[in-house]
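FORM 7B: Structural annotation worksheet

SECTION A. Query
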Amino acid sequence: MGRSLFSILFERMSKYNLIRGEAFISGERVSVIEDSGFTNIEQVITRLLLSLPDEIERPTKVQVRITNLDKKQTQLYQRKLE
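SECTION B. Predicted structure
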């Protein structure tokens, strides 16, 4: 369904993996989290979006870079912040 094999494998992270999430707006990094305990991408994105400062104008597009530091894998996502 339009997903690459890399994407499918990346989403199957272990709760023991160290994950780094970074949020960018217009190319500027506005938030970073680094933690373990995540079991899927949506958990990482949700935590990252909740960590954004309140003064960010809404609606806006947020680019998200998620890196599994243990597996050296990076994936990019985009979300609309309402």
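SECTION C. Observations
Confidence is low (pLDDT under 50) at residues 1-9. The chain has one domain: 5-81.

SECTION D. Sign-off
Analyst initials: ____
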